[in-house]
Design a protein that fits this description.
31% of the residues lie in helices and 23% in strands. The protein has 378 residues and is α+β, with helices and mostly antiparallel strands. The strands form four sheets. It has an eight-stranded mixed sheet with strand order 3-2-8-9-10-11-1-12. A four-stranded antiparallel sheet has the order 7-6-14-13, with no helix packed on it. A two-stranded antiparallel ribbon has the order 4-5.
Length: 378
């Protein structure tokens, strides 16, 4: 069912708790935002009380702080250091193992463990788009990652539309926005808390599974005025993005300027730490490693995340292809914004701003692209 066909309803805080209970009753592991270690992190939830009620975030390039909010909102915060790829495309995964018997016979066993049935609560619209991109990258094409495909196929997505964009958000300039338009099972819009009504959420289904779950929750009809209030809050967020990508043809700009002087400027600041690739919701690169026990009779192959900022990432016989920080940063940004189109038909950036927030030295890719555009115009 197309989202526009769904009839919005109202649920309250008790309804949100009932949502978590209903998803858990279906055998799903419910994952959502909660407060841990002075950050909003994604973790398994047993109830809605574990959501970050009353917490917001204060962001800038290289800066992240939790701040208390007076309104007690559950979702008035921006993206934390994790994305949903942590669960769909885990940092480390065993692929197979082999054992050698006393007679020298080798037995190889492929790892195909039962995958958890996830329910993700609080997926922002930028992350919905990121999941759609990873679907194309990891589950499409000739060489699909079947582990990803099995985890993704069983996932139930509860989107939460944005009403409080952060200072590093720029999804609108990447063709997205704060509204959930596709790819969800349920979508929620948090309304301002009123003394007489408390916490309220406009909820709508985007799939048959979403309709089935929504029917099990305590809810009331949503009147046109309430729906208008919800839409107005999301529309207002569209005009309050903290950053914007310059209005240029990114694909052409990045592809046509590999020798720009700006690459030297950013390389002088970049630590090549790979934080941007780790927090990015679409970066997907992996490598494999083999480990063995002390006897040498048992070995395993593991897949783990890798980063194009790693010096060994492009290592061939004789050394790395991209030995300089300049070359590695240029590869990351050019792939993300330009050559990704050649591989997957879209940009690899959804404008979530995580790479800006979690860069230790505050490198802002919107600023770097703007500088490249200005240099190209000269």
């Amino acid at each position: 069912m197309h989202p526009s066909a769904a009839t919005p309803v109202l649920i309250d805080r008790a309804g949100l708790d009932a949502l978590v209970a209903a998803l858990r009753a279906d055998g799903r592991t419910v994952v959502g935002p909660t407060v841990q270690d002075d950050a909003i992190v994604l973790a398994p939830l047993t109830g809605a009380d574990e959501l970050p009620w009353g917490w917001g975030t204060e962001l800038d390039a290289g800066r992240y702080r939790l701040v208390r909010r007076a309104d007690g909102s559950a979702f008035a915060h921006t993206a934390g250091p994790q994305s949903w790829k942590t669960f769909l495309h885990p940092q480390r995964e065993r692929l197979w193992q082999t054992d050698r018997a006393p007679d020298g016979t080798l037995t190889v066993t492929e790892d195909r463990p039962e995958q958890p049935a996830y329910a993700f609560l609080g997926v922002r619209p930028c992350d919905l788009r990121a999941i759609a991109i990873q679907d194309r990258v990891l589950a499409g094409g000739r060489f699909a990652d079947d582990g990803y495909a099995r985890r993704r196929g069983g996932a139930f997505l509860v989107a939460v539309e944005c009403t409080e964009p952060g200072a590093t958000c720029f999804c609108v300039s990447m063709g997205g926005g704060p509204a959930a338009d596709a790819g969800y099972d349920l979508a929620l819009t948090e309304l301002p808390q009123l003394p007489e009504s408390g916490h309220r959420f406009v909820a709508r289904a985007g799939s048959a599974d979403g309709e089935r779950i929504l029917a099990r929750l305590p809810h009331t009809p949503s009147d046109p005025d309430t729906q208008h209030t919800a839409r107005a809050a999301v529309d207002a967020a569209r005009d309050r993005m903290g950053r914007a990508m310059p209005p240029v043809d990114l694909r052409t700009l990045l592809g046509a300027n590999p020798d720009a002087d700006r690459w030297d400027d950013v390389a002088s600041r970049c630590l090549a730490c790979g934080n941007c690739t780790m927090v990015c919701p679409t970066c997907f690169c992996t490598t494999t490693e083999e480990v063995t026990d002390l006897t040498g009779d048992h070995a395993e192959r593991w897949q783990r995340w890798d980063s194009c900022f790693d010096l060994d990432f492009s290592h061939l016989h004789g050394g790395p292809v991209r030995a300089s920080t300049r070359g590695r940063y240029r590869q990351w940004l050019t792939h993300k914004l330009s050559t990704w189109y050649d591989q997957f038909g879209s940009s690899g950036c959804v404008g979530c701003g995580r790479c800006v927030t979690w860069c230790p030295v505050g490198i802002d890719l919107t600023e770097e692209v703007d500088a490249l555009a200005k240099e190209a115009r000269k």
